[in-house]
Structures are given as C-alpha cells and as structure tokens.
Amino acid sequence: MTADIDIRGVSKAYGQNQVVHGIDLAVPSGQFVALLGPSGCGKTTTLRMIAGLEQPSAGDIFIRGKRINDIEVHRRNIGLVFQNHALFPHKTAFDNIAFGLKYRNVAKPEIERRVKRALEIVRLPHVEDRLPRQLSGGQQQRIAVARAIVIEPDVLLFDEPLSSLDANLREEMRGELKRIQRTLGITTIFVTHDQSEALSMADHVVLMHNGRIEQAGTPDELYNWPRSEFAARFFGDVNEINGVVVDTVGETARVRLAEGAVLQVASQSPLSGNVKLLLRAERARVVRTPVARADASLIEGTVASSDYFGMLVRYTVESQGQRIGVLQPLEGSVFRPGEAVQIQIPNNAWIRF
Amino acid sequence: MIRARLFRYALAAWTVLVYVFMLAPVVVIVLLAFNGAPGGNFPISNLTFDWFGKVLTDKTLLASLRTSFILAAAASSIATVVGVAAAYALARYRIRGQTVSELVLTLPLLIPHLVMGVALLLSFRLFGLSKNFGLLVMGHVVIVLPFVVLTTRHQLQSVPAVLEEAAWTLGANRLQTMREIVLPLALPAILTGMLFAFMASFDEVTATLFWRPPGTETVQTQIMALLQFEVDQRIDALGALLVVFSVVVPFAALLVARLLSNRQANKT
Amino acid sequence: MTNASQAAALQASPTGRALPLALMAPALAIIAFYVIVPLVCLGAYSFWTMLPDGTVVRDFSLETWQSLVTDPFYGSVLLDTFRLAFVSTVICVVVGYGPAYLMASAAPRWRGVLTILLFLPSWISYLVRTMSWLPVLGKNGLVNTALLGAGVVEQPLPLLYNHFTVYLGLVHYLLPIMILNIYLGLATVDPTIVAAARTLGANARQAFLAVTFPLALPGLSAGCLLCFILSLGTFVTPQILGGPGTTYYGNLVYDTILHQLDWPTGAMLSVVIMVLLIALLYVYGRFMGLSTVLRAIKS
Predict the structure, then answer these.
(1) Which one of 1.10.3810.10, 1.10.3720.10, 1.10.1530.10, 3.30.1360.120 gives the CATH number of domain C37-48+57-298?
(2) B268 contact residues in A (CB cutoff 8 A)
(3) Contact residues, A window 133-152, toward B, CB-based 8 Å cutoff
(4) Which of B147, B234, B237 is nearest to B192 (CA)?
(5) What is the mean pLDDT of chain B?
(6) What is the pTM (predicted TM-score) of this model?
C-alpha cells in the first residue's frame, strides 16, 4: 500500500545547525497525523519541507508515490494553513479562496461553485465580499482553511493554526477542523505544541524531540505506553519519585523512599538499586480513610495546596520530602491545606525507563 | 508648576519664531511675485499677475521647465524600476554581502553633489564622451536611487513574507505572486519613493551645473543664470510657481492616498 | 516563524538562488558605473598635472597635490568652510533643539501639524529657499525697507553678499533637517523611563539631562553629521548669497573646474573633501554606528 505521504531519511541543517536528523514517516491516505513537540524540535521545519518552502539537506519526500524534492512550491498540490492565517489583506474573502483556483485554470462558473461550497464546509456562507480585516479571528482562520481545501489538494498541512486564537475559540475550532477533515477525507498533517490538541484531534501522533521522532503511535499508545521519559513527561501532569529497591516478590518490587515509606511497583523486568519512578497525577488518589489493598501502595502526607477546577481538583501533597501532584474527581468536600491524608497509588501506575 | 507652564509657553513662542524663520522668506518671494511696482522688491504696490504672464510666455523659461520635467520623470522612472527590484532583494533575501550592498546603494546620499558633479564630468572626459542628455539622466538616477531604495525597502519589510508563501502554496509562481500580492501591497511605498525621486531630481542644482550639455537648462540652472545677471521679477514669479508646485504635489499625493485607502475600506 | 527562517527558506529553493542577485544587479551596476568608477577617475586625475597651456599631462605626479600645501589660499578656504560647517551645525542645534523637543512632547494632533509645517520648507526647492533671502536682505529688501521706514537707519544696510548672509542662508537650509533628526531621536525615548526617573525624585530638568538627552543622543548626532556633511559641500548658498569676499570650498571647486578648466586641481580638491568626509564617517561610525545615519536620512 502506498502511503499518501512518505518521508524517508529526511534531514535539514542550517549551516552547522542540524534541525532535523534523518526522520522517516509514512502517512496513509485519509489519516489525520499530529506532529507534536516543543518549540525547536523540528516539526515546523518538517512541515515546510513537505510544502516545499524549505529544501531537505538529505532524504526524499514522496507524495502519492511521486518524489517531490525537486518540484517547486507552486507546482505541488498542497494546501497549507498558516499560523496567522496569511490571508491577502487587499482581497475579499471570495478572492482569497478563489486565488488558488485561478492558477489551476478553472473556469469562472466552476470557481464560483467551488468557493461557495468551501464556504459552506467551513460554515461561513455569507462573508464572501468582506475583507480580512472585517472578519473576526476565528472567521479569518476558517477562510484560510477554505482557501486551502478549495484547491482539492493531495495533502493538507496545518502549521499551528489555532495557537493565535483564544481558548474558547480554540476548542470550538478543534472540533470544526476535525469535522472538515473527516468530511473531505484529505490526508492531513497538523503541527502543534499543544499535547491536548494532538491527543483530541489526531488518528496518529508523532512526537518529535530535537529533530528526531521520539515516538509515534495512536494517542492512546503515546499517553499510556510512553517509551521514553520525554514522551511520558510531555503528556499530562507527571510526578517524579526516586527510591531504592529493597527486594522483589514475583512481579512486584518493593521500593523504599526518602523518608522510609515503601512502595509496591509492578514491573515486568527486574529492578534493582536506585530507581527513578514516574507517576501520572490522575493515577493517584488522595484518601482520608485508606483501605489497604494488595494491588496499591499507601503513603502518608500533608495537603500543601488544592486547586479547584470545577469537576476536578488537583492536590499538592507533601510526602517523603517532596511535593506530589494528584488529580482526581471531587468527592464530597475538598481536602484543605494542612490535613493529614494518604495517597493511594496502584502498583501498575508507575512508569519507569 | 508655574515654572513648567512658563517654560512651555516660552518654548512654544520660540518654536513659532523658528518656524516663521524657516517659512517667511518663501512667503516673501510669493508675495513679491505679485508686485507691480517698478524696480522690484519693497515696498509692494500694484498687485498684478503680470510677472506670471511673462514667465509663462517666456520661451526660454518654458523650455527649461520642460527639460526639468522630462529629466525628473526619466530619472525617477528608471530609479524606481531598478531600485524597487533591489529593495525587494534586500528585504526578502539574506545574501552574503548584504550590508555592503546596502551601503553601496545608499552611497550617493553621503557624497556631496559637488563631488559627484566633478567626478562624473571628469570620467566623461576620460572616456572620451561628450556631455549629452542621457548621461545627465543617468547622473540624476544615481542621485535619487537611494531615496527609492530606502522608502521601498522599509515598506516591503512590512509586507509579511508569509503572504508570498501562501500564494506559492496555492499555485502562483514567483512572477504571479509578485504581480498579484507584493506589488499591490507595496504600491503606496513605491509611488511615494517615486515621488521623492522626482522632487529630488527636479530640485537638483549643483551636479546638474557640471553635467548639462551646452544649451540645455533645467529650471534650477536657469534660475542660477538669471540670478547672476538680471534680477527681475520674473524670478520671483518663477519661484512662486515652484513653491506652489512643490507644496501642492505632495499634498495632492497625500489626498489621493487617503482617498484610495478609504475607497478600499468602504467596498461593501 | 521568524523572518530569518523565511528568508533562509526563500534562499534555499531552487529558483531562489540566482534571483536576488539578478534583482540587485542593475542597481549595483548603475552605482558602479556612475559613482564608483567616476570616483576612481577623480583620484586618477588628481595625480596628473595641467600645463599652463591647458593640456593635461597624464603621468603620475604629486605636483597638483603639492599646491594644496604650497598655496595658502586653498588652506584658508578649507578652514573657512570647516568653520562654516561647524558654526552652522552648532547654531542649528541650539536653535533647533527646542522646537524638536516641543514636537516630541506635543499631543498627537499638534504633532501632525508641526510635522507638516516642518516638511513644507524642505519640499520647496533648495534654490528657491536660498534666493528668497535676496529680497529680504537686499538694499530694497524687506528688512531695510522696514528699518528705513521706521527711521532706525538712514542708509540701507549692506546685509547681502557677505559671510553673514552665507551663514544665515545655510542655517536656514539646514534647520529643518536638524530639527527632524533631533525629533526622531527624542521620539525613541520611552516616556515610561522618564516617568520612572521622576518618581524616583528627579525634577524635570534633571530627568531631562539624565535620561532624555542621553537616550536621544543618536538623533542629535545623526543630525549634526548630516548638517556637517551638507555644509562642507555647499555650493549654491555661497554662490547666491555670498560676494567676492566669500569663497567657500564649493565655489572654489566650481570655479577651478568650470571657469579655470584646471581639472587636475579640481579633482585634487574634490578628493580632499571626500577623504575628510570618509574620515568623518569612520569616526562617527566608530562611536555611534552607521545604522543610525541611514535611518535619519529617510525623510
């Protein structure tokens, strides 16, 4: 099966500065892929190389089986939605959207039909004659999307399109973009630094770090089965606890912490010596009246602070000489600072590398 | 507090004086142009348009006006075409030797017109060329080129490169993008630069004195000649006309620019 | 995405490499042919000599240069011109700082008016502005007519065609440029910094001297540089407003080339002024950085 987008061994260096180190990526047709990572990880550079705005220093890029390295930007059939919409300020919404069609020798009545259809898809049917400055931020971004999809590209690329919008708008647009992509079925690469965006929108997430692909997989895989500390820490709220292995009973290791408490850690491979353990905040539970369980550890602590998020509450608990963050649904009343509590952590909640 | 207010008033008064100083002599010329009294100068009596009439019917003066216009138009056109291209390259690309190129392009601003006049004249001689109108135009091009480059470069940098990238991804090649996106957005700056270049060429005196072919006079060189020999009211009238010209044109340009941008905003 | 990365991107694409050079070539070529080559010719000519019959000997010789040293006239003219440049610049600073300051601290709506009024004179041709002093200072001019009429003097004062007139005319020409540059320098001073100084206990004068003036210095120095450069090469002003007793460098060169037809000497004199200017720019660049000059030139 030929992937729609196939990147093989692509690198990019600016002088001495190596920004992308030989990455490989194959995107099947119709898939929504998120390129995720912190700033400077090379995700935007990779996107721009696919678009043709940058040239790879090494490697090949194929779209639908055809090698496009030497094809100029304007001849690649790609739709690119920029971070700041990049609408032409001196043209109306209609003219902006129609722009790409003009250079594909599409007849005027057909242009009209396709532009109107694009506006319907992005749910902005009545703003054709407005100039970009007469539109709101969200509307501008939708017009930018319409402009990119109307040319019926092989591939749709998004360069952090939502980061300049405010929070509520961003949520709404996430759903919109996902819906549009589903409707049209275009293979899509979406660059973002926001992990929740990637997790909620993508079929497939590619996590990048320092110019390399750290891990690639479904959102579920990346969140629950991270294969490196970087990947684990990138998603959600992660605690780090250090300890020394005391002994191992079957598949459970017992680890002593700084002030003497002992944890039970489920582990498939044998543990020994000093270990660094990672724990997602939502896997632990702060309880008042602990019930001992074989499959969970209990450690004592004092509530340092609590942040109330409506349906969730995040506790910072002082325990074993450090602060541990715990995220849980609100049951009853909020634990107050100073209260003595116990944290319950299932044995298999620990992540270790 | 009172001291601050007094200081403010004193400063304002001083500013008024300075501005009057800068503008007054010109006002005098304009007034004198209407002076019908014989012997010119003051006191002013008999307001009349006679001198304007004499200027506008004087063949030599009209010829020099025509020369100035043609020269300025030619020089500013060439400078605009060449300068905008260079400004675009400077604004969009990071080339080796960029700072050197910038310096070279703005070099004429730092060289006194006197020296330019002498230098180019001498090189005509050296290469066996005789003075001709073409060389005069090129000399003016060089003098006004920095104006075009500086004005356009500044404005071009505020047309985000990302707009060009968007146009490319949509299928327009470089030339089409230039035509449809860059030029329309940079047009105000280009026209302003061209206007500056035109006015700069029109006002040029010193170097033109060195370069003009025999028999060719621009308005400026003509006035110089008249001042050496015969100072009569025609000069005042001519001066007044020039004043009106140099004030009206930029204002008109501003108005046109304002009107155009308003019209664009009001479209639907 | 920064502009730098974008620029790099544009440079990297296949068609993009030759393009910028092609775009800049015509402009650079024109400057090379019509400025750089002529300047070189200028240098060459200065090392040649002219014989009494008018022919030019194109052999390398320092004779022409020697006359710079041996003939005291050249030296005195140069000195006079330097003095003219220096004094005019200083006068412009003293006269112009106030209005520039007012403009910078004025309310926006006033600032617009003041700016236009400032630009107005500079749009009007240099020549017309200079010659406008003739009817003002002449024997039958505005000043004399007023003075005679008021009975202050019995004879018209000879106000024209002397050093005083040249200085006056030059200052008149340079003033808008100086004011504009000082204003630009002042406009870059962040008012919140000044406010901070005030809240820390400085009064208005102290705040100005300690904060505003130093921060606005680049504008002031750019203005001084420009005015100085323009004064050194000034020709029209002394020619029109000066008399037989006032010869400045510009007149000297004009005379030498177009009247005496002594090209080697004229070339030599031009080279001298160019060398001085380059030295000036170098010193200035060392202290202030050239970018400020370029910014200031943008009218």
Answers:
(1) 1.10.3720.10
(2) 92, 129-130
(3) 147-148, 151
(4) B147
(5) 82
(6) 0.75
